[in-house]
Amino acid sequence: MRARLNLATRPLVTHRRFLVGAAAIAAVAGIVFLALGWNAYSANRADAKLQQQISEIRAERANQEVRREKLKTFFSQPENAKLSDRAAYLNSIIDQSGFLWTQMFMDLEHVKPGGVRVLSISQKMVKGNMEVRLKVGATSDEAKLKFIRALEGSKAFGKVMLLSDQQSTQSGGDPDVFEISAVYTRA
């Protein structure tokens, strides 16, 4: 019969707890490593797609620049420049003929106070906006101020400027005449 004898000076120590803990930490670290690796791979793919889109946009921009230069040289030729000037002139005439006089008179009617009458109206296109010049007669300074403030507060008229003001020399029935410039926005 055999007898088991332990002749060691120290008792047998098992490292099972250490090995299980190390394996658990290694597993968690491996999962984190895989997640970070996947994240880096996805970011790299997205960056590659973005770089491809940027290069396509740059190529398209270069093509557009070349096309713009060709058109610029085409339109800078003397015969084409004349056509461009004529087209701009015709467009301005069309814009002026499309002016809604009835709508403007209705808007003026809403803002015109008593004691004010419109003597003349002229319009012209200035930088894409319809500028209206009004020659107005007023019976008093108070009526003038009410009319100017009403125009400034109106949604239809903007950039109101007093161009001239002629005071009546007679104290009778002649009105004071003043001229106003405004941009009409409902055209």
Total domain units? 2
What is the CATH class designation of the largest domain?
Alpha Beta
Total beta-strand segments: 4
Sum up the overall morphology in one term.
elongated
Question: What separation lies between the terminal Cα atoms?
Answer: 119 Å
Could you say which structural class the secondary elements and strand pairing correspond to? alpha+beta
- What is the rounded Rg? 42 Å
Percent helix range: 55-70%
Architecture of the largest domain in CATH? 2-Layer Sandwich
CATH topology of the largest domain: Gyrase A, domain 2
Which superfamily, in CATH terms, is the homologous superfamily of the largest domain? General secretion pathway protein M, EpsM
With strands numbered from the N-terminus, the spatial order across the biggest sheet is 1-2-4-3
Order of helices and strands: HHHEEHEE
| Distinct helical segment count | 4
